[in-house]
Automatic annotation (TrEMBL):
Similarity-based family: Belongs to the FAD-binding oxidoreductase/transferase type 4 family.
UniProt cross-references to Pfam families, sorted A to Z: FAD-oxidase_C, FAD_binding_4
Protein name stated in the entry: FAD-binding domain-containing protein
Lineage, broadest ranks: Eukaryota, Fungi, Dikarya, Basidiomycota, Agaricomycotina
Organism superkingdom: Eukaryota
Gene3D superfamilies (alphabetical): 3.30.465.10, 3.30.70.2190, 3.30.70.2740, Uridine Diphospho-n-acetylenolpyruvylglucosamine Reductase, domain 2 (3.30.43.10), Vanillyl-alcohol Oxidase, Chain A, domain 4 (1.10.45.10)
The reaction(s) this protein catalyses: (R)-lactate + 2 Fe(III)-[cytochrome c] = 2 Fe(II)-[cytochrome c] + pyruvate + 2 H(+)
Keyword Oxidoreductase found: yes
InterPro entries (UniProt xref): FAD-bd_oxidored_4_C (IPR004113), FAD-bd_PCMH (IPR016166), FAD-bd_PCMH-like_sf (IPR036318), FAD-bd_PCMH_sub1 (IPR016167), FAD-bd_PCMH_sub2 (IPR016169), FAD-linked_Oxase-like_C (IPR016164), FAD-oxidored/transferase_4 (IPR051264), Oxid_FAD_bind_N (IPR006094)
Protein keywords: FAD, Flavoprotein, Oxidoreductase
MF terms in GO: D-lactate dehydrogenase (cytochrome) activity; FAD binding
Length: 487
């Protein structure tokens, strides 16, 4: 990698210095005789696709410690990878070479929660599920939810501008994050930990850190607006005979459920079958899935259970009694356990994919009407190259699922192993398809290491030039997550 020429490797002297800033258990280094296997979880990404060779992992407990470490690294030109829960899906959270990993896992305290405003201020290393649990007792929920909630951290969520399953209802983190505290690449602490809903005092710097993927600094704390917990939630899985019914169904569901609709999630038949095969959530009965080409999970969240259930039941009965029904079946959760297990079916697809094989994961925004065409065209592309089928080095399945309400398709290509031939068949094919529909090559997962070469499919030259100027302004020495987002 080119940037390696400009950056220094960590030395024993550096490690000795870090040990003065942090207590010894917070420094993990092979240069201090830690077995390299202990660093594996920090050097390897969630998918087992990207692998770094860092010798040193630092786990600060305070913003001041982060600042001192970063200042030293900047002076010594040592590359830094900020790491949260390491659940990212684009290779952004692990080193490319031997950058030092700064793990936020020990910065995991809630700083404050105001039950009146619903504003939560938390250290960046707080795990999303822990924050959800913390505010549940105050009848609030986090404005975002994702399958990785048990491991991902709020700092990682903000740094990737994670979307997830609640974006349809609560919008993106660009709206709900009210403030951040960050350590800039020279070690300066930027305190923008505002708890104000309204603050029009010039440039909104925090927005730059939302989705910066650790390339502009290290987020050390987040202030976020959390909504009140809905009084009642319910969900239903709808089986559809054709993909073409998804759009009319979405329109009808929005029309009938209006303000109580909180999620509209899509999975094609292959994705559903894979989730069931790997034991994710509640499988529908055989007669319920007969003839189904795809499925939609609809969630409602509202203020009155009887009212919401009545609306959902009316929706189901009008859908099923139509002369040309859009759905073949609708299965409504009858208990909290069923509610969770229906969600587990959709949320568990990522896990099922990783159990099935090695995944090429594309996360794109394209017009809803193109979801199926994209999956079919990709499958055909692989077939035409002789790469689809059983056997070593072949693609086992091509699946589509995602957040219909957000126009976000997850196109996953599952192979027995990663190969150059499959990679070449998929790229630039998928990116060209996306660009031809003026889509985005990254709807919610980010650019990381995976898509730096493809940024131009979604960003103009002018945009990329200004992104580079911003990066150079914040990080003139290029130490912060080198090789990520921008080439
Ligand atoms: P990491 O993976 O550790 O890091 C991600 C990026 O952020 C890296 O570039 C890293 O350098 C940077 N970073 C992390 N912490 C900081 C910090 N404190 N300061 C600066 N930079 C930082 N994503 C979605 O958008 N929607 C989903 O629905 C979704 N579902 C998922 C389900 C599963 C099962 C899995 C495994 C992943 C899923 N993801 C999803 C992807 C991933 O979970 C999110 O991107 C998540 O926000 C990453 O958080 P993390 O703490 O694991 O960050
Ligand atoms: C999802 O929607 O399930 C996540 O973004 C993870 C994935 O794409 O697999
Ligand atoms: Zn997603």
């Amino acid at each position: 990698m080119l940037f390696k020429r400009f950056l220094s490797s960590v030395t024993r002297t550096d490690v000795q210095h870090f040990t003065k800033i942090l207590s010894p258990p917070s420094v993990l280094s092979t240069l201090q005789n830690a077995p390299s296997a202990e660093l594996d979880i920090y050097n390897n990404d969630w998918m087992g696709k990207y692998k770094g060779s860092s010798t040193t992992v630092l786990k600060p407990k305070t913003t001041q410690q982060v600042s001192e470490i970063v200042k030293w690294c900047n002076e010594r030109r040592i590359g830094i990878v900020p790491q949260g829960g390491n659940t990212g899906l684009v290779g952004g959270s692990v080193p490319v070479n031997d950058e030092v990993v700064i793990s936020l896992q020990n910065m995991n305290s809630v700083r404050s929660f105001d039950p009146v405003s619903g504003i939560l201020v938390a250290d960046a290393g707080c795990v999303l599920q822990a924050l959800t649990d913390h505010i549940a007792s105050h009848d609030h929920i986090m404005p975002l939810d994702l399958g990785a909630k048990g491991s991902c951290q709020i700092g990682g969520n903000v740094s990737t501008n994670a979307g997830g399953l609640r974006l349809l209802r609560y919008g993106s983190l660009h709206g709900s994050v009210l403030g951040i505290e960050a350590v800039l690449p020279d070690g300066t602490i930027l305190d923008q930990l505002s708890t104000l809903r309204k603050d029009n005092t010039g440039y909104d710097l925090k927005q730059l850190f939302i989705g910066a993927e650790g390339t502009l600094g290290i987020v050390t704390a987040v202030s976020i607006l959390t909504p009140p917990a809905p009084e009642a939630s319910n969900n239903v899985i709808l089986a559809l005979p054709h993909f073409n019914n998804v759009l009319p169904l979405y329109m009808e569901v929005k029309r009938q459920l209006s303000e109580i609709l909180s999620a509209f999630e899509y999975m094609d038949r292959t994705a559903y079958d894979l989730a069931v095969k790997h034991g994710q959530g509640r499988a529908l009965a055989d007669d319920e899935i007969e003839g189904a080409e795809c499925f939609v999970l609809v969630e409602t969240s509202g203020g009155k259970r009887e009212h919401d259930e009545e609306k959902l039941e009316t929706l189901l009965s009008t859908l099923l009694s139509a002369s040309n029904p859009l759905i073949t079946t609708g299965v409504m959760a009858q208990s909290p356990a069923q509610f969770s297990s229906m969600w587990a079916l959709r949320e568990g697809i990522t896990e099922a994919v990783s159990k099935e094989g090695k995944a090429y994961k594309y996360d794109i925004s394209i017009p809803l009407s193109k979801f199926k065409e994209c999956v079919d065209a990709t499958r055909e592309q692989l077939r035409s190259k002789g790469l689809l089928g059983d056997g070593d080095g072949m693609v086992k399945a091509v699946i589509g699922y995602g957040h219909v309400g957000d126009g976000n398709l997850h196109l996953n290509v599952i192979a027995t192993r990663y190969t150059q031939e499959i990679q070449d068949a998929l790229e630039p094919f998928v990116y060209e398809f996306t660009a031809s529909h003026r889509g985005s090559i990254s709807a919610e997962h980010g650019i990381g290491l995976m898509k730096t070469h493809a940024l131009q499919y979604s960003k103009s030259d002018v945009s990329i030039t200004w992104m580079k100027k911003i990066k150079a302004l914040f990080d003139p020495n290029g130490i912060m997550n080198p090789g990520k987002v921008l080439e």
